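Interim report, section 4.2 (structural modelling).
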Amino acid sequence: MGRLIWGLSGMVLASLAHAAEYNMPVGVTEISREVHGLHMLIFYVCCAIGAAVFGVMIYSIIAHRKSVHPKPADFHESIKVEIAWTVAPFIILIAMAIPAAGTLIKMEDTSDAEITIKITGYQWKWHYEYMDEGVSFFSNLDAKSNVARQLDSGINPADVPNYLLEVDEPLVLPIGKKVRLLLTSNDVIHAWWVPQLATKKDAVPGYINQLWTKIEEPGIYRGQCAELCGRDHGFMPVVVRAVQPEEYERWIAERGGKIGGGSDTAQAAPVEVASAAESAPVASDEPQELTRDQLMAEGEKVYKNYCSACHQADGSGMAAANFPPLTGSQVANGPVDAHIDMVLGGKNAMAAFAYLKDREIAAVVTYERNALGNAAGDLVQPAQIAARR
Amino acid sequence: MSEHHDSHHDDHGPEKGIMRWIKTTNHKDLGTLYLWFAFIMFFIGGIMSLIIRLELFSPGLQWVNPEFFNSMTTMHALIMIFGGVMPAFTGLANWMVPMMVGASDLALPRVNNWGFWILPFAFTLLLSTLFMDGGGPASGWTMYPPLVLQTGDAFPFMIFAIHLMGISSITGAINVVVTILNMRAPGMTLLKMPLFVWSWLITAYLLIATMPVLAGAVTMLLTDKYFGTSFFTAAGGGDPVMFQHIFWFFGHPEVYILILPAFGIVSTIIPTFALKTLFGYDSMVYAMASIAFLSFIVWAHHMFTVGMPLAGELFFMFATMLIAVPTGVKVFNWVATMWRGSMTFETPMLFALGFVFLFTLGGFSGLMLAIAPADFQYHDSYFVVAHFHYVLVPGAVFSIIAAIYYWLPKWTGHMYNETLGKVHFWLSAIAINLTFFPQHFAGLAGMPRRIPDYAVQFTDWNVISSVGAFFFFIAQFTMAYNWIVNCVMRKGAAAPARVWEGAHGLEWTVPSPAPYHTFETPPVISDSEITAVHDEPAAEPSRA
Amino acid sequence: MSSNTGGYFVPAPTAWPFYLTIGLFLMLGGVSNYLNGHGASVLIWTGLAISLAFIWIWFRGIINESESGKYGQQVDMTYRWGMGWFIFSEVMFFGAFFGALFYARQLSLPWLGGTDVMTNAVLWPQFENAWPTNGPGAVGGEFGIIPPWGVPFLNTMLLLTSGVTLTFAHHGLRENKPRRNVILWMWATVALGATFLYFQVEEYVVAYQHLNLTLESGIYGSTFFMLTGFHGMHVTLGTLMLLVITLRLMKGHFKPDSHFGFEGVAWYWHFVDVVWLGLFVFVYIL
Ligand code: HEA
Ligand code: HEA
Ligand code: CUA
Ligand SMILES: [Cu+2]
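Predicted structure of the assembly:
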């Protein structure tokens, strides 16, 4: 996979392609190049000092061993020398600190960005919201990897393209535009990391951290969550698809968004209701009683976003990972309250989904009871969820 | 005083059987207990690391599920740090500090007994969590909320275990400080003390200053989980990141707690085998003092990515880089001590030299991590794992191993087998680099830490690392055999009082094995036993 | 300052610490089970009983040794250093909680309140930062606070006075004044400590029953109760220690020239006193 990225990242880097396996990527932004530069600089400084120190040591080990140098000298102090080797490193460090400070200041300057995207970490997936364009969606570990990564799945990861580094829906960004990323989390701390962009920041619940990037090369850039966030920390990759601005605009339009503000969320309703936990306006001015079709339609979307990763799209579950099937399960066919509680409260490996809106839970529960081969027949209305909370 | 002392002398000789060990207030007995405890913990922690390496041997999940993997990572770290290295250093302090300053025992022998006996119980609490609902703690040894608050039944056990470890460390540290400040034989002025004693004086200070802070931090976790406080919840006005600040205010000094005694050990061993006095005794002391001071103002270098204000990031970057200066002074002094010495390479010396090479290497990667912009790439990747294992394993652990090879003949009166010792060193030195060097590459190539499974392009590095890990673990058995059979079971050759030709210091003036009670009346210190030679107080380099 | 007085004091082997540890082990294990909702109060109480018993036995042992003149000047010095460093560690423990208070007030709350524009605008638009607060989520609901110039001020006075009476007692002891006076000053000190505690409890009752100020009241409640609570525990301990010292004085313990048991407790009491001043200023007034 390294190859693919590099191939796209132009001649200069292509020559380094192999480095992908053992060195920090040079990356595809001005910042990432500067960071790589600092990395190499400090590395060479350390090599030089190391060579000197170890050189002297090795020489002395050989030349001053007892058999060749039986008579030890008896000096044990020299203020001059000691001051020298105190001051020298100090100066080297200052020389190091100046460029480092420069880059750091640049990295922290998120002003005048053209696009703002809110990234929310969930256990264990990312949610992307284009603040002005009114587009938002979840990005889960792609199904192939998800199956292969189960304990003794019997699938050889090498046969899975981009194993653990592929998602169902990547973040799409236009090249050549300064993009500001607002990071936060819905549950525990996560960290959004894409080595090629030299962007890593924690997503802290209740706070917003800011990042910015300006990608220069179109391509697909892959990274992972970089802060321990529980069981599936290793399984929430980040994938960024950098495209030409025109293509980006087309994509936004397809997703029912509008370039440049006026976020009219209602217009994006179908996508919205299903996926965005925070698309507030939608739920409110809707009739509280929903028809079966509404529930089933939204339920299917919610199911796809939140449930299918484990219970599978067809509800067959995943025996290898003892993710129970929903098809024919007691919960999905038994008393509805137990079913609602399960979704709200979670159980063992099953996460709690209380953070979803009543409407979304109502929809997904209805869907689970009347699709996936189940036919409990009953409808669940948002009011019932509110009652069970 | 003294006659009373003789009067009940007989009744505190070693008792028989298990009660001897439960009731002992003797610094040598307790030192031995500490070391055995650490020894066992090192192996438990080692086995956990092998489970980690086994799962990481190839991509895909073959052996354990992610939750268990995370609890292995967490437990491995807690056990190695709080159960392995710290008790081992305390054990060495128990054995050596009183002998080195010419005291009969530590200042508070009963408290010393307490400090030790807390440990087995604390770790029983901690290890028992592996068998509980929800498994052991799995949020990393750093215990960041909110994740740690998702821990199952293990949670309170872990918190209380840490409280107990804290009590143990603090009592141990107070004991050492007081012994050093109050029990030195006449003529043993502060600036004549062996550097191991100095290193422990400073370490003990760090322990007393930071352990209570850790206790406070985990107490807040406890109340946040069970009593509805909001220290670490934004909705209540708290901040999850606040925990990280408090934790690392403890955590960074903690890492120097894990290395300063090692500096002391190496500064003792190198002169012995170079037949030459230590170069720059004063600057060694000042350097350790400055490191200790700096360690209190660099903590947030563990948190560059949490979104601190720019000013904070700049400050912590600069402060962190400064630590390279005093540490450098120490490295240079060691090299200068070797320079034009007349060196022999017995096992302790080999491990000490291995320490200087590999610790320095780990220090370099530390310095790279200190460069905040670059740390955005390194952070929470295997590059960090490589860094701290270089300073911890061939750093702290090598120094412990060196110290035991160095003093074990004095303790037991019997020599270990030199050839086997050398074999052990070379096996360990090779294996440890196999284990941890490739992790630099994996990290730079983008492999995050704390993951049970990884993308296929990281496979090669992980295979080498796993092989090295098993290799290293097995290599330790040569050491265990050598120590237990030759020294503990007294199969080795008898050791003279002054085990090493170049060894100076009060501990070498008593016979080997050292009698149960040394220096019941303060010894007279001959100049030849003073390891600190300095004509006039040197200028203070580490101020730079 | 290498001090030395000829022979060293080496205590006989003892299992007190071991049994004390068993007590602590049982107690903490019990509390853990309790917190996990598995009951297990038996463990807690047995553990507590064992711990207390051996703390008692241990200190009694020390007191007997001290009274039978086994401690020379060096042991005295050891206890001084030991107590000093112990108090230092206590200071650092409180430091953690004061640190939390300052962090919340100086950093996290302002951020939530808008100095961190995005955090406020996107996540907590309705929140302005004003102390006291239970955070943007109004965790624990509306609450009132304890005005500093009522009971807390009174308590400040009580503690300061207790410091003075304690010092009088100390001088009395040093200058070998009639024991009666010394003991009276001590009882006064103990009484002041106890009164402080009484008012503290009173204050908590008011907070919980009338002000809806509880541990759950967001960051304010958290810092308020954790700081005053831990301080309260230390006052309780200190008062008990003062009581012991008083009883020992009545049994004729301590000499004008050697009475570290007394001084150690005095140090501890002054430390508790100083911590309170910090609390009064940072928790109640500011
Ligand atoms: C024994 C323990 C130990 C020691 C001694 C050190 C020493 C140092 N450490 Fe390390 N560190 C850890 C244990 C230790 N560390 C641990 C356990 C972690 C991870 C915790 C976790 O997240 O789980 C960590 C993590 C860690 C980080 C955070 C990384 C991240 O999570 O993103 C950083 C960042 O600055 C850092 C820096 C340093 C520095 C600058 C030193 C310096 O003290 C090194 C100084 C030494 C030298 C520089 C070499 C000798 C000097 C010379 C030869 C002089 C000339 C040299 C120059 C001028 C370059 N360490
Ligand atoms: C002192 C501390 C210490 C020591 C010694 C070790 C030793 C080892 N560690 Fe680890 N490790 C940590 C501290 C330590 N570690 C920490 C803090 C973390 C971070 C945890 C987290 O992310 O939260 C970590 C994490 C960590 C990881 C990353 C896990 C992850 O991110 O998911 C890995 C992976 O390879 C690893 C491997 C190893 C290996 C193979 C060894 C081998 O060296 C083990 C073999 C060693 C022995 C068997 C001991 C032999 C020595 C003796 C027997 C001495 C005898 C002494 C006396 C007699 C007193 N460790
Ligand atoms: Cu999300 Cu790690
Ligand atoms: Cu650090």
